[in-house]
User: Fold this.
Amino acid sequence: MKQFLNNLALSLVGLFIVGGLWALLSATVSPDLPSPWRTWQESKVYILSPWEKRGEMDQGIGLMTAYSLFRVAKGFFLAILIGTPLGFMLGSSNTFFKMFDPTIQLLRPISPLAWLPLGLVLFRQSEPAALFTIALCSMWPTVINTMTGVRAIPQDYLNVARVLRLSKWRQFTKVWLPATLPYMFTGYRLSLGIAWLVIVAAEMLTGTPGVGGFLWQEYNSLIYSHILLSILTIGIVGFALDRMMGFAETKLRAI
Amino acid sequence: MIRPLVITSLTKAFETPSGTHVAVKDFNATIEACEFVALLGHSGCGKSTVLSIVAGLSQATTGGVIVDGKEIDSPGLERALVFQSPCLLPWLTTLDNVVLAAREAHPKLNAREQKELARKYLNLVGVGEFENTAPTELSQGTQQRVSIARALSLEPRFLLLDEPFGMLDSMTRFELQDLVLDLWEKDRKTCILVTHDIDEALYLSDRILLMTDGPESKVGLELPITLPRPRDRHELAGNTDYYRLRKEVIAFLEHHSKQFQQEKAA
Ligand SMILES: Nc1ncnc2c1ncn2[C@@H]1O[C@H](COP(=O)(O)OP(=O)(O)OP(=O)(O)O)[C@@H](O)[C@H]1O
Ligand SMILES: [Mg+2]
Assistant:
């Protein structure tokens, strides 16, 4: 408990220092950058009534976040829906691995900014294009980690499955899946992190309502304090998501 | 007459980066029904290689294993294998680990009967009280008992044991040896026990197959163990036959390691 309070105090000090630097910057070299106080003044409507809808792009921060989260959730589920079986196949079949690994290595480093226009060409609508981009960019950690997990299944367990003559399905549910689950979850956690990174880019480019869309719109309307509000929201939500997945992961590893 | 288990000129070669390694060559043995056979040899001589081929986990390069007149090429539920480490699935409870096996071997039983069967074998090896415990919370000795229960729940004809007591402390090892001996006295399953513990082989088996050192190891000597049954560890301690047999085994093993070192030096 004492340790916890100590850590909390230290992180508050860190936050305070960064806030101080921010205030210092806006007071000296960058007059366009709103100070922390001005940011709060200009953003408090969004924070204090987070569920209020005044216009398409003028909504409380809670609503904006909810739109983004919903979009991320859809893209993320698409990613793990494709990524998990793909990882299993890559991990269990050498032929499959040799066939597709080079392509995957090629696709992996491509930026969301490059996928989005392709998505727009493919689907002609911003919503499916955004989902396409999120899924494509965020599925790789799931693929790679699931694959690693499958490869790391101890030979002993596989031998047990063989001497007990478990059917393919039971081998999968009783041995492969539980043995790979911790790795899969590490993949899911990283994937969710990437999905949240990508959502901002996707919303900015497509101009859909959400934290990213809001950020870009307010930049265009020269309301810079709202950019800061968006950035802070993105950070806090990203942190919360990561913690949530981390929690689920440790729970899982404890089994 | 059809023999229960015959191993004929079994040869196993491994392809390694430094060339072909012939671990076992022309291994021959006939195992009779209800017999308890120990496979004894130095570490690395190829005991596990032979046993895993008998279990059907790996394939012989040439030669093979014949069960009831049929050559085997895959695992079968009539041949249960107990591994050196317990190999229990950590995400299942102790009972579920055994049910996993019972289900496969007795598909005609319903779920409740399969569970009862699994319980019966857990009780038989003396770990019934741990049925809802996670395997990782049990001691190595208890885990190995569960692993034996898992093998028995298949109700196999052959029990293959690959150094099942190797990682246990000596007191626990004695307990488990007595357990296996007891179980064998009850229903006389055909047993093949791989070990490098001389006393263990003498205490448990009807016959010891002594393996020469690898590479190209084979059966160098077959030694019938005529010690009276049921056996008792304390009685054997005063048995002159026991010491005669023990000397013979040691002489063989020493001779072969000497020969091996000479060959290595040459
Ligand atoms: N998959 C493999 N590839 C290459 N060589 C192998 C392989 N498996 C076993 N060997 C070699 O075959 C020989 C026999 O191995 P094996 O595991 O059967 O010995 P063992 O008698 O069971 O030894 P231990 O008492 O240590 O368990 C060893 O020299 C080992 O290095
Ligand atoms: Mg071995």
